Fold this sequence. Notes:
This is Glycosyl hydrolase family 43. With about 325 residues, the protein is mostly beta strands.
Amino acid sequence: PGAACAQGVEAPETVTSKGNPILADGRYYTTDPAPLVDGDTLYILTGRDVADPEVNDFIMPEWQLLSTRDPASHVWQHKPGFIRPENVFAWAEPARAYAGQIVKGPDGRFYFYAPVLERDSDAKDRFAIGVAVADSVNGPWKDAHPAGPIVSQKIPVPNDIQNIDPTVLVDDDGRVYLYWGTFGQMRGMELERDMITPKGPETRIQGLTGFFEAPWIFKRKGIYYMLYAGNKAGPDSACTPAVYHACQAWGTATSPLGPWTYRGVALRPVSSTTSHAGIVEFKGKWYMAYHTADAVGGGHFRRSVAIDPVEWDDSVSPAAMRPVVP
Length: 326
Ligand code: FUB
Protein backbone atom coordinates (compact mmCIF):
# COMPACT_ATOMS: atom_id res chain seq x y z
CA PRO A 1 0.00 0.00 0.00
CA GLY A 2 2.85 2.42 0.78
CA ALA A 3 4.24 2.36 -2.77
CA ALA A 4 0.80 2.47 -4.35
CA CYS A 5 -0.10 5.38 -2.09
CA ALA A 6 2.95 7.31 -3.22
CA GLN A 7 1.85 6.88 -6.84
CA GLY A 8 -1.73 7.84 -6.00
CA VAL A 9 -3.21 4.83 -7.76
CA GLU A 10 -5.32 3.34 -5.00
CA ALA A 11 -8.91 2.79 -6.01
CA PRO A 12 -12.01 2.83 -3.84
CA GLU A 13 -13.09 -0.69 -2.96
CA THR A 14 -15.98 -2.59 -1.42
CA VAL A 15 -14.93 -4.72 1.51
CA THR A 16 -16.85 -7.39 3.36
CA SER A 17 -15.38 -7.34 6.80
CA LYS A 18 -15.16 -10.35 9.12
CA GLY A 19 -15.81 -8.15 12.14
CA ASN A 20 -13.21 -6.08 13.96
CA PRO A 21 -11.04 -4.43 12.84
CA ILE A 22 -13.08 -3.42 9.80
CA LEU A 23 -10.04 -3.61 7.51
CA ALA A 24 -8.09 -6.43 9.11
CA ASP A 25 -5.77 -7.87 6.48
CA GLY A 26 -3.00 -5.31 6.91
CA ARG A 27 -3.23 -3.81 3.40
CA TYR A 28 -4.47 -0.53 4.84
CA TYR A 29 -4.25 0.69 8.41
CA THR A 30 -7.01 3.04 9.57
CA THR A 31 -6.78 5.27 12.63
CA ASP A 32 -8.50 7.90 14.73
CA PRO A 33 -12.08 7.18 13.65
CA ALA A 34 -14.57 10.03 13.42
CA PRO A 35 -18.05 8.72 12.65
CA LEU A 36 -20.66 10.85 10.88
CA VAL A 37 -24.22 10.09 9.81
CA ASP A 38 -25.74 11.61 6.72
CA GLY A 39 -29.04 10.27 5.42
CA ASP A 40 -28.97 6.50 5.34
CA THR A 41 -25.20 6.21 5.48
CA LEU A 42 -22.74 5.88 8.33
CA TYR A 43 -19.37 7.34 7.40
CA ILE A 44 -16.14 6.98 9.32
CA LEU A 45 -13.35 9.40 8.55
CA THR A 46 -10.05 7.77 9.44
CA GLY A 47 -6.39 8.59 9.32
CA ARG A 48 -3.86 6.21 7.85
CA ASP A 49 -0.75 4.74 9.46
CA VAL A 50 1.95 3.82 6.96
CA ALA A 51 4.89 3.46 9.37
CA ASP A 52 7.10 0.46 8.71
CA PRO A 53 6.94 -2.09 11.55
CA GLU A 54 10.22 -0.94 13.11
CA VAL A 55 9.29 2.77 13.05
CA ASN A 56 7.95 4.19 16.31
CA ASP A 57 6.28 7.29 14.93
CA PHE A 58 3.01 8.42 13.45
CA ILE A 59 3.58 8.42 9.69
CA MET A 60 0.21 9.56 8.42
CA PRO A 61 0.01 11.00 4.90
CA GLU A 62 -3.75 11.13 4.38
CA TRP A 63 -7.28 10.63 5.55
CA GLN A 64 -9.46 7.76 4.32
CA LEU A 65 -13.21 7.27 4.27
CA LEU A 66 -15.20 4.19 5.26
CA SER A 67 -18.96 4.04 4.77
CA THR A 68 -21.82 1.60 5.13
CA ARG A 69 -25.60 1.56 5.10
CA ASP A 70 -25.65 -1.19 7.71
CA PRO A 71 -22.77 -1.98 10.07
CA ALA A 72 -24.34 -5.41 10.77
CA SER A 73 -23.92 -6.30 7.08
CA HIS A 74 -20.15 -5.83 7.45
CA VAL A 75 -20.13 -4.41 3.92
CA TRP A 76 -18.08 -1.22 3.75
CA GLN A 77 -16.97 1.14 1.05
CA HIS A 78 -13.35 2.14 1.53
CA LYS A 79 -11.77 5.19 -0.06
CA PRO A 80 -8.03 5.39 0.44
CA GLY A 81 -6.42 8.69 -0.55
CA PHE A 82 -9.58 10.56 0.44
CA ILE A 83 -7.91 13.81 1.57
CA ARG A 84 -4.26 14.80 1.80
CA PRO A 85 -3.39 17.90 3.87
CA GLU A 86 -1.29 19.57 1.18
CA ASN A 87 -4.09 19.24 -1.40
CA VAL A 88 -6.53 21.28 0.70
CA PHE A 89 -4.55 23.63 2.93
CA ALA A 90 -1.98 25.73 1.04
CA TRP A 91 -0.41 26.67 4.39
CA ALA A 92 0.05 23.07 5.54
CA GLU A 93 2.84 20.55 5.21
CA PRO A 94 2.29 17.05 3.85
CA ALA A 95 2.02 14.13 6.28
CA ARG A 96 0.93 14.20 9.93
CA ALA A 97 -2.73 13.88 8.96
CA TYR A 98 -3.75 13.33 12.58
CA ALA A 99 -7.29 12.93 13.95
CA GLY A 100 -9.87 15.08 12.16
CA GLN A 101 -13.65 15.25 12.12
CA ILE A 102 -16.26 16.03 9.46
CA VAL A 103 -19.40 17.73 10.79
CA LYS A 104 -22.57 18.68 8.92
CA GLY A 105 -23.41 22.34 9.33
CA PRO A 106 -26.86 23.90 9.68
CA ASP A 107 -26.48 25.08 6.06
CA GLY A 108 -26.32 21.45 4.87
CA ARG A 109 -22.65 21.74 3.91
CA PHE A 110 -19.88 19.64 5.43
CA TYR A 111 -17.02 21.05 7.48
CA PHE A 112 -13.77 19.19 7.99
CA TYR A 113 -11.69 20.11 11.05
CA ALA A 114 -8.13 18.97 10.47
CA PRO A 115 -5.00 19.13 12.61
CA VAL A 116 -2.04 19.65 10.30
CA LEU A 117 1.46 21.08 10.50
CA GLU A 118 1.62 24.80 9.81
CA ARG A 119 4.47 25.37 7.37
CA ASP A 120 5.48 28.97 8.03
CA SER A 121 5.65 28.91 11.78
CA ASP A 122 8.52 28.99 14.21
CA ALA A 123 6.32 27.78 17.07
CA LYS A 124 7.81 24.97 19.10
CA ASP A 125 4.90 22.75 18.09
CA ARG A 126 3.50 23.54 14.66
CA PHE A 127 0.24 21.61 14.83
CA ALA A 128 -2.67 23.84 13.92
CA ILE A 129 -6.33 23.28 13.11
CA GLY A 130 -7.69 24.11 9.68
CA VAL A 131 -11.26 23.96 8.36
CA ALA A 132 -12.27 22.79 4.90
CA VAL A 133 -15.75 22.80 3.38
CA ALA A 134 -17.58 20.64 0.84
CA ASP A 135 -21.12 20.23 -0.46
CA SER A 136 -20.93 16.45 -0.05
CA VAL A 137 -19.13 14.21 2.43
CA ASN A 138 -17.29 12.83 -0.56
CA GLY A 139 -15.87 16.26 -1.40
CA PRO A 140 -14.31 17.98 -3.21
CA TRP A 141 -12.88 19.81 -0.19
CA LYS A 142 -11.59 23.34 -0.20
CA ASP A 143 -10.02 25.43 2.52
CA ALA A 144 -12.83 27.38 4.21
CA HIS A 145 -10.37 29.77 5.84
CA PRO A 146 -7.54 30.22 3.31
CA ALA A 147 -5.89 32.87 5.50
CA GLY A 148 -4.63 29.96 7.61
CA PRO A 149 -5.56 27.80 10.58
CA ILE A 150 -8.33 28.81 12.97
CA VAL A 151 -6.31 27.56 15.94
CA SER A 152 -2.54 27.49 16.23
CA GLN A 153 0.14 28.47 18.67
CA LYS A 154 -0.24 31.96 17.21
CA ILE A 155 -4.03 32.47 17.10
CA PRO A 156 -6.64 33.25 18.30
CA VAL A 157 -4.47 33.81 21.35
CA PRO A 158 -1.01 32.34 21.66
CA ASN A 159 -1.14 28.98 23.38
CA ASP A 160 1.46 26.39 24.18
CA ILE A 161 -0.47 23.19 23.72
CA GLN A 162 -0.36 20.74 20.84
CA ASN A 163 -3.34 21.78 18.72
CA ILE A 164 -4.64 18.40 17.60
CA ASP A 165 -7.71 16.17 17.87
CA PRO A 166 -10.45 18.72 17.08
CA THR A 167 -14.07 17.81 17.75
CA VAL A 168 -17.08 20.03 17.06
CA LEU A 169 -20.65 20.26 18.31
CA VAL A 170 -23.46 22.15 16.59
CA ASP A 171 -25.82 22.76 19.47
CA ASP A 172 -29.61 22.69 19.17
CA ASP A 173 -29.67 26.49 19.22
CA GLY A 174 -27.24 26.68 16.28
CA ARG A 175 -24.22 27.72 18.37
CA VAL A 176 -21.02 25.91 17.48
CA TYR A 177 -18.28 24.68 19.85
CA LEU A 178 -14.79 23.41 19.07
CA TYR A 179 -12.70 21.33 21.50
CA TRP A 180 -9.18 20.02 21.04
CA GLY A 181 -5.96 19.10 22.81
CA THR A 182 -3.59 16.44 24.05
CA PHE A 183 -0.95 15.74 26.74
CA GLY A 184 -3.53 16.38 29.43
CA GLN A 185 -4.72 19.76 28.27
CA MET A 186 -8.07 20.26 26.58
CA ARG A 187 -9.27 23.58 25.25
CA GLY A 188 -12.72 24.65 24.14
CA MET A 189 -13.94 27.65 22.22
CA GLU A 190 -17.13 28.84 20.61
CA LEU A 191 -17.07 29.35 16.84
CA GLU A 192 -19.34 31.67 14.94
CA ARG A 193 -22.43 30.04 13.44
CA ASP A 194 -20.60 29.95 10.08
CA MET A 195 -18.73 26.90 11.51
CA ILE A 196 -15.43 28.59 10.65
CA THR A 197 -14.67 31.83 12.43
CA PRO A 198 -13.30 31.68 16.00
CA LYS A 199 -15.54 33.54 18.41
CA GLY A 200 -13.67 32.70 21.59
CA PRO A 201 -12.55 33.00 24.21
CA GLU A 202 -10.36 29.91 24.29
CA THR A 203 -10.99 28.20 27.63
CA ARG A 204 -9.48 25.31 29.54
CA ILE A 205 -11.78 22.31 29.84
CA GLN A 206 -11.45 20.89 33.33
CA GLY A 207 -13.07 18.21 35.46
CA LEU A 208 -12.51 15.29 33.09
CA THR A 209 -10.36 13.02 35.24
CA GLY A 210 -7.31 11.60 33.55
CA PHE A 211 -7.91 13.45 30.28
CA PHE A 212 -5.03 12.74 27.93
CA GLU A 213 -6.26 13.45 24.37
CA ALA A 214 -8.85 12.61 21.70
CA PRO A 215 -11.93 14.48 22.94
CA TRP A 216 -15.23 13.58 21.25
CA ILE A 217 -18.21 15.82 21.97
CA PHE A 218 -21.86 14.83 21.49
CA LYS A 219 -25.24 15.54 23.00
CA ARG A 220 -27.92 13.09 24.06
CA LYS A 221 -31.24 13.90 25.67
CA GLY A 222 -30.14 17.44 26.52
CA ILE A 223 -26.88 16.37 28.22
CA TYR A 224 -23.43 17.14 26.81
CA TYR A 225 -21.13 14.12 26.75
CA MET A 226 -17.37 14.14 26.29
CA LEU A 227 -15.62 10.89 25.42
CA TYR A 228 -11.84 11.03 25.68
CA ALA A 229 -8.64 9.04 25.85
CA GLY A 230 -7.72 8.93 29.50
CA ASN A 231 -5.09 7.62 31.80
CA LYS A 232 -5.40 7.30 35.57
CA ALA A 233 -9.12 7.76 34.96
CA GLY A 234 -10.80 4.64 36.34
CA PRO A 235 -11.37 4.27 40.05
CA ASP A 236 -10.42 0.61 39.56
CA SER A 237 -7.26 1.66 37.71
CA ALA A 238 -8.85 0.35 34.52
CA CYS A 239 -6.96 3.06 32.69
CA THR A 240 -3.58 2.66 34.35
CA PRO A 241 -2.34 -0.81 33.47
CA ALA A 242 1.31 -1.56 34.15
CA VAL A 243 2.06 -1.07 30.48
CA TYR A 244 0.75 2.34 29.54
CA HIS A 245 -2.31 2.16 27.29
CA ALA A 246 -5.08 4.74 27.40
CA CYS A 247 -8.73 3.89 27.89
CA GLN A 248 -11.81 5.75 26.74
CA ALA A 249 -13.40 7.65 29.60
CA TRP A 250 -16.41 9.93 29.59
CA GLY A 251 -17.89 12.86 31.41
CA THR A 252 -20.97 15.04 31.20
CA ALA A 253 -21.99 18.68 31.49
CA THR A 254 -25.19 20.67 31.34
CA SER A 255 -23.61 23.46 29.31
CA PRO A 256 -21.18 23.04 26.45
CA LEU A 257 -18.07 24.56 28.00
CA GLY A 258 -18.67 22.98 31.37
CA PRO A 259 -18.28 22.53 34.24
CA TRP A 260 -17.65 18.89 33.37
CA THR A 261 -18.03 15.89 35.65
CA TYR A 262 -16.10 12.65 35.16
CA ARG A 263 -18.47 9.69 34.88
CA GLY A 264 -16.53 6.52 34.11
CA VAL A 265 -14.80 4.28 31.63
CA ALA A 266 -16.49 3.55 28.31
CA LEU A 267 -13.85 1.36 26.70
CA ARG A 268 -11.05 -0.40 28.51
CA PRO A 269 -7.51 -0.12 27.15
CA VAL A 270 -7.07 -1.68 23.72
CA SER A 271 -4.04 -3.31 22.10
CA SER A 272 -2.58 -0.03 20.82
CA THR A 273 -1.10 2.45 23.27
CA THR A 274 -3.27 5.21 21.87
CA SER A 275 -7.01 5.00 22.17
CA HIS A 276 -9.14 7.21 19.98
CA ALA A 277 -12.90 6.88 19.58
CA GLY A 278 -16.07 8.52 18.37
CA ILE A 279 -19.71 7.80 19.20
CA VAL A 280 -22.70 8.31 16.96
CA GLU A 281 -26.38 7.40 16.67
CA PHE A 282 -27.29 5.70 13.41
CA LYS A 283 -30.76 4.40 12.53
CA GLY A 284 -31.80 4.38 16.20
CA LYS A 285 -28.74 2.53 17.50
CA TRP A 286 -25.57 3.93 19.02
CA TYR A 287 -22.10 2.88 17.94
CA MET A 288 -18.56 3.50 19.11
CA ALA A 289 -15.78 3.45 16.54
CA TYR A 290 -12.27 3.11 17.97
CA HIS A 291 -8.89 1.82 16.89
CA THR A 292 -6.71 -1.10 17.97
CA ALA A 293 -3.48 -2.81 16.89
CA ASP A 294 -5.39 -5.99 16.03
CA ALA A 295 -5.06 -6.11 12.22
CA VAL A 296 -2.49 -8.35 10.53
CA GLY A 297 0.91 -6.71 11.11
CA GLY A 298 -0.70 -4.13 13.38
CA GLY A 299 1.06 -2.16 16.08
CA HIS A 300 1.05 1.05 18.05
CA PHE A 301 1.81 2.97 14.86
CA ARG A 302 -0.15 0.59 12.56
CA ARG A 303 -3.65 0.92 13.96
CA SER A 304 -7.03 -0.16 12.60
CA VAL A 305 -10.60 0.95 13.15
CA ALA A 306 -13.16 -1.25 14.89
CA ILE A 307 -16.82 -0.59 15.66
CA ASP A 308 -19.20 -1.91 18.31
CA PRO A 309 -22.69 -1.04 19.49
CA VAL A 310 -23.02 1.17 22.55
CA GLU A 311 -25.76 0.56 25.08
CA TRP A 312 -27.23 3.15 27.38
CA ASP A 313 -28.54 2.81 30.88
CA ASP A 314 -31.39 5.32 31.02
CA SER A 315 -32.39 4.27 34.53
CA VAL A 316 -29.70 6.57 35.95
CA SER A 317 -29.20 10.29 35.52
CA PRO A 318 -27.35 11.30 33.47
CA ALA A 319 -27.83 8.22 31.30
CA ALA A 320 -24.71 6.07 31.42
CA MET A 321 -22.79 4.39 28.64
CA ARG A 322 -22.23 0.71 29.23
CA PRO A 323 -18.59 -0.21 28.57
CA VAL A 324 -17.97 -1.56 25.12
CA VAL A 325 -15.89 -4.69 24.46
CA PRO A 326 -13.03 -5.53 24.69
O1 FUB B 1 -2.96 9.39 15.28
C1 FUB B 1 -2.15 10.39 15.84
C2 FUB B 1 -2.56 10.67 17.27
O2 FUB B 1 -2.60 9.47 18.02
C3 FUB B 1 -3.95 11.23 17.42
O3 FUB B 1 -4.03 12.58 17.12
C4 FUB B 1 -4.22 10.88 18.85
O4 FUB B 1 -5.55 11.01 19.24
C5 FUB B 1 -3.72 9.47 18.90
O5 FUB B 1 -4.67 8.57 18.41
